[in-house]
Design brief:
Blueprint (H helix, E strand, L loop, with lengths): L7 E4 L1 H5 L13 E2 L5 E4 L2 H8 L18 H4 L2 H4 L31 H30 L21 H14 L9 H6 L30 H19 L5 H17 L2 H9 L3 H24 L4 H10 L18
Parallel strand pairs: 1-3
Antiparallel strand pairs: 2-3
Helix pairs in contact: 5-6, 8-9, 8-11, 9-11, 10-11
Length: 331
């Protein structure tokens, strides 16, 4: 991985503790892999305090309720001028309710009380990290590295007060005057401390912790298509030195379709049956369009009208470089 410019990456806890050999500092120190890239494993206690559906901070009664929106809560005559022209209700972003509890009768949201709660949770989060760190330091005879990564969409999206929480956490860390410090992963690596070499195990932090969300009887048919796409893109790269302008254009579009077809959300949506029909249709369209433009590039017979139609529809990565699909030797 390091040969590809990946200096470090993050894994879930079991990706490290199930690695070979067992990490001598558990998940509380980064490790170096055979490739030279450094792996950080997330701390399960930090994760549960924020993400747990039962005890996580975002579920506190004072915080704004994500699932209640004025576009659905108010009667039609009141909201009709603020939803779709055909009368279909949509989220407006105006959310007047707070979590309240396990009830549909949600109380009104109070921003002041929410901000007070943010400060309490920030102090609690830092204190528990400090207490845990002190226990770990006695156990390992060294300062632990507590890794606390979270999905970016949590902060400000699912958890409206999340950005305020992050700000409060860093201010609280500063207030501790050196008893606990915040570092980036790069700063930890640059400290020069010797790292244990470990081969992490396969893992994800998706449901179940492994790959069952992305590979199961509901979506495994995609794997064969992905493998063929992968092989055909490598062939195009090998041939590209002889391509004319039209072939290069078609080959670049093939690269875009390859990336879009392999987006992990398609398999996820199919597994969860969340807009599963939409996901199947979209991934099938990208696979179809890939083979269409790949054939143009390979055979040199360019259908200008069809190619432009596909380009206009899928115009992500305008400066895509075919070399990203070239084979590489894993170190």
């Amino acid at each position: 991985m390091k040969s590809l410019g990946v200096e470090f990456f993050f894994v879930d806890s079991h990706g490290l503790v199930n690695g070979d050999p067992y990490p001598i500092y558990d998940v509380y120190a980064p490790v170096v892999t055979q490739s030279g890239a450094v792996a950080f494993a997330r701390d399960p206690l930090s994760s549960s305090q924020v993400w747990s559906s039962e005890s996580g901070y975002p579920g506190h009664a004072r915080y704004r309720e994500f699932y209640r929106d004025l576009g659905w809560d108010r009667d039609f005559d009141y909201i009709k001028d603020h939803i779709l022209p055909d009368g279909s209700r949509v989220n407006t972003g105006l959310k007047y309710r707070r979590v309240t509890g396990e009830t549909n009768r949600k109380d009104y949201y109070d921003p002041y009380h929410a901000r007070v709660q943010v400060q309490d949770h920030a102090r609690h989060f830092v204190k528990t990290r400090l207490d845990h760190g002190q226990r770990l330091a006695k156990r390992f005879k060294r300062a632990p590295i507590i890794t606390a990564p979270f999905d970016a969409e949590l902060f400000g999206h699912w958890w409206f007060e999340g950005p305020l929480f992050l700000s409060a956490v860093f201010k609280e860390i500063q207030a501790q005057e050196g008893r606990i410090k915040a570092y980036t992963a790069a700063e930890v690596i640059d400290s020069g401390e010797a790292l244990q070499e470990i081969t992490p195990s396969a893992s994800t932090w998706g449901a179940g912790g492994y790959h069952s969300v992305w590979l199961n009887p509901e979506n495994d048919v995609l794997l064969g298509h992905y493998e063929e796409i992968h092989q055909r893109m490598q062939t195009l790269v090998a041939m590209s030195a002889t391509f004319g302008p039209g072939q290069h254009r078609a080959a670049r579009q093939a690269g875009r379709e390859a990336l879009l077809a392999q987006a992990s959300d398609w398999a996820f949506l199919i597994t969860k049956d969340t807009a599963g029909h939409f996901a199947r249709r979209q991934v099938a369209t990208h696979i179809r369009d890939f083979f269409t433009v790949e054939k143009m590039a390979r055979e040199g017979e360019i259908d200008e009208v069809l190619l432009k139609e596909i380009e206009d529809r899928d115009n992500i990565f305008p400066d895509i470089d075919l070399e990203v699909f070239a084979p590489f030797e894993q170190s």
